[in-house]
């Protein structure tokens, strides 16, 4: 069930303040890099002190929380920083489908963090020196269809639209995958550096081979405060500034996109309401403009009422209608039936948690699963009753470009 690497004795954890390390990614060795970074701040980590394979099932988040609270509870911790992300930390990636295997938690051996003008280093066990080798380029990339070809995927979208029009559900989200094979093994650090450079407002992440830059913050917990950024409703960027502004206006006034966004916001409200003493959700979304697409975005904030950990909040929220649909069960049924692929960690929660229960988790979007010289890229779109399959395909392609750029430069 669970695989623990290294010692099963209590963890010995030391956090000390360090001078500003500058570019966090430049400090990563090539093997097993972990990351959660936005605007140059966050955590990078390497080495694996503990790896837990989370058993699939409806109680997987509870299992993860309980195992971590045992591990962290019995650890010997010497923490001179006491900030969110200091002391022992676990990175995690959960599969989209609770019944799919592959969810994992890793307590890295070394964690380097930088936040609000402070920086610190955490080591688990003996402090070791890890050589930082130069970045390696993967060479030529050859792409192939994933589970469905583009026309097959458009056909699946058309079927989902019919299902929605016949009143079975309001919204679903269909995704597709692409395969990529590089000439040489893929250096995850190079992908991280390129992603962070082009998408600084996204969360550049790496966890157990799942690598990407997601704009969608599922939840950040800092003490009793939580924040989230709900995204749904997308239009590709324009050819020039005037076109861009016109597209932004089209997106903002599009009934289809506003409805799609409202479904996502409603699912987040429903999940967070029972956990919160206070919850703020703006009445109207705003525009989030990224290098490849524009999104409708609603920043959410709240105050927890009962000391839930960040994983408890993740458990309550996943899957939001931004990646599942409305109503959830009907939408998941359509995804299982029409998408024809295993989403693995794509569209699942990815992030980190510390011993206080603080942490940051995103929805794993604009990402790929990397294995040696191979990658599997993912992207999906919210489907409504008036979705046009060709436009949805164009949107999925715009989203796939994030990882294509990371691989190709
Ligand atoms: C499903 C993805 O993105 C989600 C779907 C969106 C949409 O359909 O408009 C927008 C943002 C995300 O919530 C993806 O990037 O793969």
From TrEMBL:
<dbReference type="InterPro" id="IPR005801">
    <property type="entry name" value="ADC_synthase"/>
</dbReference>
<dbReference type="InterPro" id="IPR015890">
    <property type="entry name" value="Chorismate_C"/>
</dbReference>
<protein>
    <recommendedName>
        <fullName>isochorismate synthase</fullName>
        <ecNumber>5.4.4.2</ecNumber>
    </recommendedName>
</protein>
<keyword id="KW-0413">Isomerase</keyword>
<feature type="region of interest" description="Disordered">
    <location>
        <begin position="1"/>
        <end position="20"/>
    </location>
</feature>
<comment type="similarity">
    <text>Belongs to the isochorismate synthase family.</text>
</comment>
<feature type="domain" description="Chorismate-utilising enzyme C-terminal">
    <location>
        <begin position="151"/>
        <end position="399"/>
    </location>
</feature>
<dbReference type="InterPro" id="IPR004561">
    <property type="entry name" value="IsoChor_synthase"/>
</dbReference>
<dbReference type="Pfam" id="PF00425">
    <property type="entry name" value="Chorismate_bind"/>
</dbReference>
């Amino acid at each position: 069930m669970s695989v623990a690497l290294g010692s099963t004795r209590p963890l010995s954890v030391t956090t000390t303040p360090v001078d500003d390390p500058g570019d966090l990614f430049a400090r990563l060795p090539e093997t097993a890099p972990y990351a959660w970074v936005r605007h140059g701040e966050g955590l990078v980590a390497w080495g694996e002190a503990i790896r837990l394979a989370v058993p699939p099932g409806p109680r997987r988040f509870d299992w993860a929380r309980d195992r971590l609270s045992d591990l962290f509870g019995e650890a010997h911790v010497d923490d001179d920083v006491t900030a969110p992300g200091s002391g022992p930390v676990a990175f995690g990636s959960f599969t989209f489908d609770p019944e799919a295997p592959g969810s994992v938690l890793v307590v890295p051996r070394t964690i380097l963090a930088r936040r609000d003008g402070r920086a610190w280093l955490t080591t688990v066990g003996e402090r070791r020196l890890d050589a930082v080798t130069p970045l390696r380029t993967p060479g030529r990339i050859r792409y192939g269809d994933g589970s469905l070809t583009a026309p097959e995927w458009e056909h699946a979208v058309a079927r989902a639209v019919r299902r929605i029009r016949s009143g079975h559900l309001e919204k679903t989200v269909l995704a597709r995958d692409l395969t990529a094979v590089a000439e040489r093994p893929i250096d995850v650090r190079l992908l991280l550096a390129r992603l962070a450079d082009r998408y600084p407002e996204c969360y550049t992440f790496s966890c157990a081979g799942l690598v990407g830059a997601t704009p969608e913050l599922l939840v950040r917990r800092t003490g009793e405060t939580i924040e989230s950024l709900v995204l749904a409703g997308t239009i590709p960027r324009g050819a020039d500034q005037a076109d861009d502004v016109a597209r932004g206006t089209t997106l903002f006034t599009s009934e289809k996109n506003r409805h799609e966004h409202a479904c996502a916001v409603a699912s987040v409200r429903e999940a967070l309401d029972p956990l919160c003493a206070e919850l703020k959700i703006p009445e109207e979304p705003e525009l989030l403009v990224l290098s490849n697409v524009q999104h409708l975005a609603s920043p959410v904030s709240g105050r927890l009422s009962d000391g839930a950990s960040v994983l408890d909040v993740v458990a309550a929220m996943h899957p939001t209608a931004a990646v599942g649909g409305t109503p959830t069960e009907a939408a998941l049924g359509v995804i299982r039936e029409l998408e024809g692929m295993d989403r693995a960690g794509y569209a699942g929660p990815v992030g980190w948690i510390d011993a206080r229960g603080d942490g940051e988790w995103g929805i794993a979007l604009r990402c790929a699963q990397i294995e040696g010289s191979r990658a599997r890229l993912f992207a999906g779109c919210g489907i409504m009753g008036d979705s046009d399959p060709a436009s949805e395909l164009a949107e999925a392609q715009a989203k796939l470009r994030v990882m294509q750029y990371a691989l190709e430069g």
